[in-house]
Fold this protein.
Amino acid sequence: MNDEPKLARRGRRPRDAAGGARVVNYRNLRNPFTPQRVFSDDQIQSIHETSLRVLEELGLRVLLPEARARFKQAGALVDESANMVRIGREIVERALLTPPRAFTVRGGAPERDAFFALGTLAFQPCGGPPHATDIARGRRPATIADFTDAVKLIQHYDVIHMHAANVEAQDLPIHLRHYATMRAQTLWSDKPPFVYARGNPQTMDGFAMLRIARGLTWEQFKADAWCTTVINTNSPRQIDIPMAQGLIDFALYGQPCVVTPFCLMGAMAPVTVAGALTLSHAEAMGAITLNQLANPGAPVFYGAFASNVDMKSGAPAFGTPEEVKCNIASGQLARLIGLPWRCAAATAANVNDAQAAHETEMSCWGAVLAGCSLIMHAAGWLEGGLTLSFEKFITDIDMLNTFAELCHATPATDADLAFEALKEVQPGGHFFGAAHTMERYQTAFYEPVVADWSNFGTWTERGSRDATSRAHDIYRRVVDEAKPVPLDPARVEELEAYVAKRTEEGGAPPVS
Amino acid sequence: MNDEPKLARRGRRPRDAAGGARVVNYRNLRNPFTPQRVFSDDQIQSIHETSLRVLEELGLRVLLPEARARFKQAGALVDESANMVRIGREIVERALLTPPRAFTVRGGAPERDAFFALGTLAFQPCGGPPHATDIARGRRPATIADFTDAVKLIQHYDVIHMHAANVEAQDLPIHLRHYATMRAQTLWSDKPPFVYARGNPQTMDGFAMLRIARGLTWEQFKADAWCTTVINTNSPRQIDIPMAQGLIDFALYGQPCVVTPFCLMGAMAPVTVAGALTLSHAEAMGAITLNQLANPGAPVFYGAFASNVDMKSGAPAFGTPEEVKCNIASGQLARLIGLPWRCAAATAANVNDAQAAHETEMSCWGAVLAGCSLIMHAAGWLEGGLTLSFEKFITDIDMLNTFAELCHATPATDADLAFEALKEVQPGGHFFGAAHTMERYQTAFYEPVVADWSNFGTWTERGSRDATSRAHDIYRRVVDEAKPVPLDPARVEELEAYVAKRTEEGGAPPVS
């Protein structure tokens, strides 16, 4: 943490006439920590070699014929009767050489661009739950209104760098749902949206709507990364039709896939950390290979999301020591590959309590210490991903802002060392009125979003409200005060016309 | 984390007839992480040099005449009219050479011994609050019953390595209180106790009772470390009478002081991280110097506990980015000195909620990544140290156990990499019944104390209980099932006789 980050600089203004509020820059963060290790370099090399053996000798089941054809053309051994693809290491090693080591996912405004490489740090919120919850309305099947509320929160907090799948808008039919989610992401936010890979027609709808919102030709769209999607393998060793199609389509249009085997040790992965990562790494390399065979040089994220299950019940567990170890070791494998990569912060708690905060923070620290470039599910994830909690979204922001603050250099000039102030204040005195303090106090410290530091008496007088209760008010205020992003009315009109036309044509059911 | 720790080895047994419960060793942990940095080596050297200037040019106010005399004898410039002591750097530098770089604080049984050096990791719980709270009885002035409950919890959890000051037993008069707290610590636990430094008579009572409980002669007692105390300076730049007396008495009896300036940036310390640490480091070095002048070679902990205040209200804040930075930078200064050192995990929350867990975990990670040897207040601390929460004590155990698990090496043999298991399980299948899983599942994963991983339906059926509610039951069970440690009845009789005699003599009021 001793070097001034090259990308992130604290944008503190000198005090101005308005009183000098603290201004910080939480965009394009650079991870300040030395990446940690769980395994020795030799052990990591063994895992890598064994993963290559898995691809070569055991193979992947790939359900999409076009994907098998691409693998076959590259020299892989394909058994069409079993949909099995065995991929020689030379094919994998060649494919791993072609993706860019660094790329920018572009937003609707230059300050929304997110730069990715090993060493950068970005956060995505909770992605994909079927439910939403808040303490006023309780837990419910999620709706497009919940999805849009999440978009507004994402837009509001600088420490959230890109959209995620947020929630499933279950009040909309699935062949039309993606129009509404793309509409919400482009009208209420200028951050890079999330586009689901649920078959070619939905993907193309997503790209088309984003191209319109950003005012781009198709050539301009393809020339840069403008969105992301998540590609989950079906562990163990399977890539299904929409995921394989996504790996191909996103590559062909130059948009980055976030390749993420989701490996729960003891369930869909071996019960050991080393075994789970051998599988996860093999699947990630196999998926990246397909992606690069479709379009060598397409931007792509390596990824890992491994944790364990409760062996008594089979229930997924998160924030465990085993997950922290998986996160850190995944970073070692990612550095071997050299690509920006994603990991996750997660919890299995059912309510936004001490367990939820503990598990989320443990796994998030694991990802940060792993040198992860993109930490997903970092705000609002509850119940192992089955619910988005709007209050947890807000309490998690204090955690993420803290990480962002830690990315900024700490001044240590002679004036900061404060010898003169130490001389000024007598033994047993205090620094409240010292000149050194007066010059700095307005911008010295992080101001939390939710934390309440008042004493017990004051806190009790104010209603003894816990963090979740306070977070609820903040969530409501941010959502209620949100405004659509300024967008050329012609683009809005074109977007609406596109949705109307595609709806009339019958929309686009997911392909599986 | 790639090296098998030399001190901590996972004591997993092979499965036995009883079903092979997981056995772990959370004692004598070795920190697995690379210590992080906030400042460059040059900046740390500047802070160190400036701290030496503070001691030499500005000096400390030292309220105990005996302490000033010892400083004077060593060559310091003493102004008796102002109680000021200016300490030349050669005195400080000489004193810093004499304490042992490694020592063991001994318990009542060999497995309770706690070894300390740079690189080891140990936890002490909440120390010193005037209040206790649990959700059944609410917040109240703490009593000796609360103190004893804390002792039972400390004894129960292996990841707590030593006693802390726990709570103030306000139901007992202060001239007799220490007899009851020493009695509780020695009858209900064989871990190293905490002895308050509140003047020579109380200190000597504490040593005497511990000597009796451990069955030692005074020579044997002095030859090893058997307890600890905390020495807080009165920042800025003052050492009061009981603290100075403690630094001398503990040194003379070979017992380690935990030297801890408590520096809140903007209040009793400069508003900058670098300035606060300049002060904290100066005070720590000054106190260690007095300690070593009294008895060169006495074991002593370096220490730091620095955070910021809310500049709007002056309220102490914890778990902030500034505290994390202070913790990490304090580790850099501790490594310069070369002594085992203490830091803290802390929160300003008023209830055991998401804020409490977040702030505690942030500061604890800061201390862990700083390479801290002794993390205090690591379980149960609430309200910035004004209350011990019994439920938070329990929820914090899951955090501490997770850190302890991370100290253990992760196996990566060929069998752990699980190629054969990956071959056995078909694509899209699962590993629940795989031989590889069956051989390992009973001991594969950490089993949490409080975390509930059941799904929302089951959790709701069970009463929708949050972590705090579940922790309450665990706290009650542990306390209710606690048993006194086996102690030679002759020693118990001698202890009781000592207390009776000293009580009859009028006890020992604190000296200040």
Summary: Chain A touches chain B through 130 residues (CB under 8 Å). The radius of gyration of chain A is 24 Å. Chain A has a mean pLDDT of 95.
